[in-house]
Amino acid sequence: MPTTSIKRRVFLQGLAATNCLAAFSWPLAGFAAAEMLNVQKLTDRISVITGAGGNVVVYHGNQGLTLVDCGLSEHTTALLKLVDEISSKAPITTLFNTHWHEDHSGGNEAIHKRGTRIIAHENTRLWLGADFDVEWRNWSHKPRPKEALPDQTFYVSGKHDVGGEIVEYLHFPQAHTDGDIALFFPDSNVLVAGGLLANGKYPVSDIATGGWIGGLIPANAAILAKINDNTQIVPDRGPARKKADLKAQHDMLADLFEKMKTRTREGANDHDMLKEKLTADYDARFGNPEEFVMETYRGMWAHTYDMGGYI
Ligand SMILES: [Zn+2]
Q1: Which residue has the higher pLDDT, 6 or 83?
Q2: pTM to 2 decimals?
C-alpha cells in the first residue's frame, strides 16, 4: 500500500486534453474557445463533459447532482461554471473518482469545498495522499491536500442511491490501476468505464500503481457480460461508445497478451516486439503501440507469479 514516505515509479497517462465533438454535443456560448469543453447528453438525466482532461459525467438526481470524475485542475473553474449552467446551479451532492489519475481527480479540492461528498476505492484515496516519483518523466507526485481526499471509501463493489436510480460501482483490482471502478446506471443503461476503456488508442495500464494487462482483460470481460448492445459506455476521454468498441479493445488485448507472452518466452523484449510489428493488425484502429507494448511488457515481468511463476 502506498504511504507518504514511499518513492515509486509511476506511469501517468498523457495529460493532453482531447476535445471530441459528438453528434449530440454543442459548444457553449460564453466560454473561451481555449477551454474547449463540450457537453454530450446521453439521457434526460446523464450528460458527459469532454475536454476537461478525463471525461466528467453528470447525473441529474432528484436531490442534486452526482458527478463521476472531475477532470484536470486547470479546467475546474470552467467545468464548474458549465455544470452550474446545465443544471441551473443544482447542488453537487456526490463525486465519484473512478481512479486516482489527475485527469480524473483534478477538481476534487474545489468540488469538496462546495460540501460535496467524494467516494472512491480505498486504494484511490491512498494514492491521492502518497508521495512518489515519476522517474522516467522526471516528475514527482506530491500528496494532494486533505481536501482532495475522498470522505468515503470502499474495498469491494457496491451500490449507491443517486436520487433517480441505484448506481452500481464495480471494482476491478489491478486493471488500469489498483483502485479502478466502473459505474453502471442500470435504468439509464449507461456505463462509465473510467480508465478501463481508452478512446481510439491502446489502453495503457499504470503498472506502478497496481495496473496490468492481466487484470484489464478480465475487467473488460466482466463489463461486457453486464451490458447490452444499447448500453452507452463513457470511455476515459471523448464521446460515448458502444459494446462493440469495448469488445474490440478486449479482443485486441487478449490476442496481444498471448502473442507477447509467446515472444517473451522465446527471448524477445519489448523493443524486439515493436521492431517486428507484433501489433500490426491493430495499429490502424489503436494508433501508436509504443507506450502500450513497453508498459505491458514491464507489467508482465512484475506479475510473473500471477502467470504461474514464469512468463
Ligand atoms: Zn487513468
Answers
A1: 83
A2: 0.88
Q: Let me know if residue 14 belongs to a domain.
A: no
* Distance (Å) from CA 62 to ligand 1 centroid: 30
Residue 306: predicted pLDDT: 81
- CATH of residue 36's domain is 3.60.15.10
Tell whether 12 is covered by a domain. no
Residue 17: inside a domain, yes or no?
no
Number of domains the chain contains: 1
- CA–centroid distance, residue 46 to ligand 1 (Å): 22
On the question of pLDDT at 183 being above 50, the answer is: yes
Cα 211 to ligand 1 centre (Å): 10
| Phi-psi group of 116: left, alpha or beta (phi > 0 → left; psi -120 to 50 → alpha; rest → beta) | beta
11: CA distance to ligand 1 center in Å?
9
The range of the structural domain enclosing residue 74 comes to 25-307
In-domain check, residue 8? no
Q: How far is the centre of ligand 1, averaged over its atoms, from the C-alpha of 120 (Å)?
A: 14
